[in-house]
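Task: complex structure prediction.
Instruction: return structure tokens for all chains below.
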Amino acid sequence: MKAKTRRTIIKLVIVVVVLGAVVGVVGWYKLFRKVPVYYASAEDHFKYGSVGAEEPTGVPYLIWLVLPRMFPEKLPGPGGYTALGAAWEEGQELPIGFTKMTIGFPRVAVNCAACHTTTVRATPKDKPMMFLGGPSSRFMPQAYLRFLFACGSDPRFNSDNVLKEIDRIYKLSWLDRALYRYVLIPQTKRTLIKQQTEDYTWMNSRPDWGPGRTDMNPFQLVVMKLPDNHTIGSTDIMAIWNQRAHEGFLRHSDGLNSTLIEPVLSAALAAGATRDSLDVEGLKRVNQWLLDLPPAKYPYFVDQNLTSSGNEIYNRECASCHAFGGARTGKIIPIEEVQTDRHRMDHWPQSAADAFNKYAEKYPWGFHNFRSSNGYVALALDGVWARAPYLHNGSVPTLADLLVPVEQRPKLFVRGYDVYDQERVGFVSSGADAEKSGFRYDTAVIGNSNQGHLWGTTLSPEDKKALIEFLKTL
Amino acid sequence: MKDYEPPTPVEIRERKRIKIILLIILVILIAIAAYLYWAFNPNRPVDYADIQEHFKYGSIGSEPANGIPYWIFKVLPDMFPEKLGGKGYAALGFIEEPGKDLPIGFSKRRVIVDRVGLNCAVCHTGTLRDNANSQPRVIVGMPANRLQLENYIRFLSACALDPRFTADNVMTAIAARTRLGPIEKFIYRSAVPLTREALIEQGSRLSFVNTRPDWGPGRVDTFNPYKAIQFHWPMEGDQSIGTSDYPSIWNQRPREGMQLHWDGNNTSVEERNKSAALGAGVTPATIDLDRLKRIEDWLLDFKAPAYPYPVNETVAAKGEALYKQHCSACHDFGSALVGTVTPIGKISTDPERLDSYTYTLAVNQNLMYAGYPWRFSHFRKTNGYANMPLDGIWLRAPYLHNGSVPTLRDLLEPPDQRPKEFYRGYNVFDQKNVGFVANLAADGGENFFKYDTTLRGNNNGGHIYGTTLSAEDKDAIVEYMKKL
Amino acid sequence: MTTDIIFEPLKFRNLTVKNRIFRSNISGRFDYYNGVGTQARINWEEKFARGGVGAIISSHVPIAIRGRILPNYAIIDDDDKIPFWRRLGDKVHEYDCKYIMQLSHGGRQRDIAGVENSFNKGLSSTNSTDSFHGLLCQAMTHDEIKMVIQQFADGARRAREAGLDGVELHACNGYLINQFLSSAINDRKDEYGGSLENRARFLLEIIKAVRNAVGDDFHFQVKISAVDHNNALIFWEKKGNTLAESVQVCKWVEAAGADALHISYGSTFPHPWNPPGDFPIAHAARTYGGMIPSGIYAFRNFLLFRYRPLRPIFNFLWNRTKPEQVEGINADEAQEVKKNVNIPVLVTGGFQTASYIRKCISEGYCDGVAIARPLVANNDLVKIFAAGKDLPDKPCTYCNKCAIHAIADPLGCYELSRYDGDYDRMIKEIMTVFTPA
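Output:
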């Protein structure tokens, strides 16, 4: 009797253990198995390689695929993810800056290149040229987040509907189907709603970023989860090429860090990675590659007759702050002197810097060099033609506009249109075509002021023209 | 070890019996499942041994996602005869061969119930007649010169929106044609509202085509419906017109690597085929690659039919020399420029079709068949129209990508002397000018489609090569081109 | 008043009974589990003796535990049971009533075999399972046949030693001897199967052994089914023995030395013809549960009884062949037997009308009648007849509730209409077997 019971128990235990093992192995394989992707070329790695954001914040690939088809009305316009301004190479599975990695199942996240790839077109019918490392003037990180959030909180986002849409494009096995139905779709919905209602609620009380801009608040509010200090961190996306030449310069518009690697790692955290998921090796590879990534060369006509006189004017008027080797290049210009919009600078107090320096103490890559400042960095102007709109908040559409007094700079203009204005040097910022696909930038909105940086505004029109022609060549 | 709790004889027997009963139940269940599988096999296409039959009637997988239940398809003309002028599906230019249950280009596959879907042949099989009194000759692989696909879509939408399209009426109409089994009856009854919904949705997604000039027979807008159907893009802001002629699809092997489609947006024959299959209604999940492959393989070396009418060899010989001089460089297999794109600025034909295919669409197409090794990666935005090889060109009228020039002879005239208006949809051959007779508005009780070259997308300008030659030389070139 | 044939004594070769009314075999689970009788059984039999019957034929008295129908039946498998039976006999004799013990072996037909038999199958002529309850069995070996014959002989001897007035062999209703006799059940290939002669061999050998054991001067009768009608309920079964075959058996029985015959019907128990009347399916649903472990079809039957939507299935099968007339259902068959033998013939089957009984006896259908259910309903039926009444005021309704309850409950009349719907009165009446009024 007892023996029989014991036998039964042993049998049961074996069955439970075997079943548990099978469920465990299959579950691990289908949900957690990490399949690293290695790109032989560092450039491809920059464009499509992981920064470690897939595990914490990646969206299941098939869901990511069908969302624009299920909710096209939640995107700014037709065109799937291109409507968010993503740069997409012909033939490539994902837009530049979107990464796909299998952690149990394929997941999609973003990396540095999403924001740091410039697209430029001569005419609206052209295909865009792409310049890696330059600031995107079109990509809308905020619109991407809002699109995902809007999808997640839509009642139509449920397993039935999402699977129906997936069924149209991919034949899932019954097991994957069950996983999507019972785990991935509900979990994705929960995650998106949580992000919308907990992590990113602060966005609702800040000005819209618009294309080509971001807000620094995620560092404090999403990554570090500090209390909201109600500051505005709107900032134009920066160029990150040619870093070896920028060695020793302060980073970010307010110079909050002086190293190369710390801004790279911290940006990856803002892109959705966590301290534990951060792909430090991969990011170091990116960082290494950025050292010698050449700035974009101006692809259009340059009037060589003007450049030499422009060069002279540049040396006289600008070089001390903006040329490599200039006395103040890469250093802080106090707010009283530069007089540009102060919100971005005020956004990063010493307390935030201190908190960030403590944030990853226990990690070998931890931060040590964050700081606060009292002004904005005078940036080197390599590839400046591709870095429009100008000033740290992207409040001035073209170089020509920057060289006029504040009152004459456009108060309302369009951002996010990548057809190039070869005359004014910057992107076309007005007109019907631009308005159709762009974002209306209002300098009256808090944090968007186009004031300050009055250098060069008093030059003669001829000098300005020559100077601008020269700036194309940087 | 001794078993101290043996079962009683009754229990032993009962356990055996239960096993037997379970076994019997299992056998019965298997039998039921086998029957259901046999009767409602979720995927059973009708197959044809003959490759031409397979091309005309075989399945490429369009039925599971976008097929219409067979009997609903059959009874729609019964229920709504007035929408087809009482002529059935033939009114839409579908080709009905004697003894065949479905028109050419329609395949049947059982997905719970038999469903009808489209295949390649619907757009790539045409008919030809020697004169107004002769019987049509069915020619596979040529452009479907009479097919009014837009009107088929409109017909389906109109049926779906008709208040008479109810389960009761459909079942009554089916009952007039056949007797369904009880299970099938039940399935059909529930399939009617689903079909209706799907057709209404399709109609609403494609409603934008009604704001463009009519396609007419033999033409289709390939890539705008792609935007709406595959990607569900809102089309309100998209005014582009992609209407163009169906191409011939024979002789694909030498085309591999060429810039395919009118604007040369893809260089992979295989990818182009899979894209075209999407247009027929397959989805990446339902495409029947094996059966499609059969067609693809056959088309590689399937040659264009030879010109069946007399050719004046003397004139043709003269024409050949002129052709070599004026046409070969762009149009002959093996020439430098064949299968490459001539920029729009140079070719100057109607730009709408080129502009309708956008960079945005091209990169989004990278997600078609995502998750499969054959994911699209060859689509490119181009800036002109591709130089087509001219094999079987005599059957490919009207000419230019938008079918704006009725005959070869007309194409050799300067644009301002090409016909401003002509009629499409007649299949009687014009041996003199090479093309279909295009100056008749009606014949045999059938009205033809008036093609107006002044409408957007219908411009007959551009491609002025050879237009300055003498009339005699032009005739000679045309005579020679019959032999291509 | 002319003499009433009912009240004329019936003379057997070795026994004279004061009238023509016999209490037929019917039993409740009154006794100790181990087969030792109790006062309740004595009380039970006393009711009928007091009521005036000429003789009581006991219920099924197993000659061996393995042949028991239900536990709590008094048995006669050992000499140690003799004192009880003597006490019972003495009590009955007080009323000038004779007591004939029915020696019985259930064979495969063991409704509830009891814990002693949990791991054996019923002994039978065949290995084939009974088709009603699904009771399992095994074909007896020659040694087992010999052993059982001896058990019958021993049982008979003990009955005589207990001072009882006679013995009856239970050779009908689907019990062991019937399982040998019936062509529908007996599928043996040896000398105990096949021809009628072979099938009767077991019975005749028992008769010989019993006669040897009790001597020639002890009353000894045999109860036989006139017709098997083995397919009355389960229609795909074989028909079984015909009347002609049974008459032949009766002749052999007479020749073998039996003193009387007792005619019944059917090769199963219960059988749509025996006990004739209704099948109280709602009551079966309450009592049949205890039989579920007994047979491989018992749970199926239980479901058929228990769930009302299923009941029509069983009712249909049961009523399919059921005769209209209940009283005297076997009278014609008895007459046929009687024509062919010279020993007295008793018959059972719903008798309770004096005039009808009188007619049957006087017209040569039988020599006496054996009554069970009408006597359970009216213990004093004989006295009622004697008082000149043809039928009791509250006659037996042939509802068969008594028989169905007997599986689980104290035996008694469970026909509530006979108690004017007074349930408490009914229970009180039933319980008098334990505490006589």
